[in-house]
């Protein structure tokens, strides 16, 4: 056809229209253009319920490295063979590597597919590894794209890296909450994820078309651009064919359905709780942490990836500190990491080079580098400019810098607002509920646990010995124990002793007694058990097998619980009368009486009995349900506990810190409770990582067994954010903050009657007891005349408030008439007010923070005046090399001498303690407030709760002169205590009565 100049080329236009119509018709009929390419050959070597295992190029006889490729849940296994030349399996084959691919299939077409859980996929990956290792005799390289990479990480952790030569991931996020897709704020996503997991995906599933649409909506600009580009070139078949296989995969063929339970588990464990980083995620009732990955890791990072954002992907370097972690960066988005020209030229050749290097058959790849710890201040790692550049391929460099700055400011504001909002959402409802409690309010430990079970019965509660018990399982166990108690004749109001190790069975027993309405009497086996039982009017004891002999020695009726099933153990003396093995009771056969009502406890009812020592005498410490709730709600709010926390419960339950501020606060916070067999540095480090511990509870000197041990090693990026407890010496407090720089210490103090509960929430004043917890009783420090043992009165006849820095008596305001267990005073500071006397001395600083000076009974009354014990002990504990320090008085009141005993730390010699150290350490105290004698002892014994005991030291009397003993001279300086010095001081040893000293429990 002859073309006339100046007129359109009608022939070419006609040909274009015809070609467009023909190609369009082919797309409509076949879903795409016929490219003539063939998929790589493979054979299915194993078929199981969860997967089919493909071996690509089955006719090859190479004995080279083996790699297993894991697809995401929502993407077809063909993602590793999308294009003929650049597909993963083809590129890897050219390098002599055998590729295996796990094909999970599409859940909507597989038998039982819609019931698949996340754990099923991880176990399937582990099973596939076993099959390949058994078949080839070689360790395998485990690789995964996107969520498939998350599966790879989780399977490697599940296997403790067994038979895994290396890990390779492509755009797989680890620290999910560090950078969510599209920059969504975690404060919005986390509650939404919990809601979807609990209310939506436990009922529905996601079809393939919805998965495809959701993926495309994550980058709508690129999706629209690619479709417009395809329509514009529809006439040019040759231009479309090179990308047609990729387009068809993304538009239709590459997507499969998601099962609802798997999505719910993903959202709950790895989005809401972010347990890829913290550890403690659950695979088939086994606790797993990425910290146990030890094989080399290579992570591919898409610099424009808005799904697996760089900072989220780089979270692996913190989560797996024992692994050598490398990265390789590409200027592509999420899908471009594994499909397309960039993957063919960069991803898969680099993967092949990595595999050969790790197999000892090649050099280190040029395109990898050691991964560095991500800086949270840099945002997600994908700047706004990168997103726009990737989507439109046009944006000025100057604008990118401005965008990053704006985004940084926005992220900072978002993080701050989110923190404030989350804290308010957690704290306000708890404090409101606490403020509403009256004497007739139904509130108890058992009721709180029932409420948690109704909210989330399938969520984990107890973690112990690498096992997991859910709220529902624990609730069933509690009800079964209640049935057993009823069968044994226990009724509401009965006082029942509990002598058990801190294990799940002990917590279940305490909760069961609460549910029944009985009173749990918490017994310490090291104390005077007979006296405890007498004081508590208790005639029956529940014990575990470890405490059976002690319990039977002091009680005529013992119920045995815990320690395994009845068929696997032999309880000596179990006659069904005096000693009853409760594990043999069938709860279904128990006839529940008509009077039984679950969780009947009211706020004013007695719930627990603890024990304390007052004036060197054992005294009961009654705890009502209101006191328990006040401690539990207050501690949970102060610690900011949520269901995303895992609390490491180390204190014994017979200590107030174990029962009130640990168990109680954890139940209120709906947190997981991790239990241990004891304090051991290696076990501590292992369980913190494996359980994902975020909060550690303690008592007294407990943590010295960990942080001061020469064997203590822990991941510096461990998930611990808080230590909570009571009685920690200031020297140990500082050591803890040095060993755990990202955590703070939350020190609690409670009076023996529970009328005052203080907490050092900020943690910035080491040694301070802080202020009263919100919604607990207000306190005041009243002027107190120690010599006269009476309150100081002002000119108007009211009690005088102590001045700043003055030592006075702590009083707690009584707000509930039903809650009286201490001495009550009226008209104290104003007419008609009511205050409870605590018996503890405090001083108040200028910021109203309170500093403990000891109990009234612990004051050492010397000829020079009163000496307070805690300030001396804290000062000595901070001297380098000192492990434990205790102070006690010897002699008659008014003529006592103050004696300090110190033990040295592991590896430190007693000779290393010098006079200069003592002078500097005690320099902040006036001379008359320092001990008369200081001596170094080999060991200071501690109780079950790790409280230092001075009784054995008191019984030794005045230390004998020696090289490790110093005395205070008239100027307040310390000198060696020699025989000559002892004779000159002329202390009347005969007047010293060791029985008058405070034995401190």
TrEMBL record:
BP-aspect Gene Ontology terms: long-chain fatty acid import into cell
Domain called AMP-dependent synthetase/ligase: residue spans: 454-777
Chain ranges of the AB hydrolase-1 domain: 90-335
Gene Ontology cellular-component terms listed: plasma membrane
Top-level lineage group: Bacteria
Record's signal peptide: none
Stored NCBIfam families: PRK07868.1
UniProt family annotation: Belongs to the ATP-dependent AMP-binding enzyme family.
Name of the featured protein: Putative fatty-acid--CoA ligase
Species per Swiss-Prot/TrEMBL record: Gordonia soli NBRC 108243
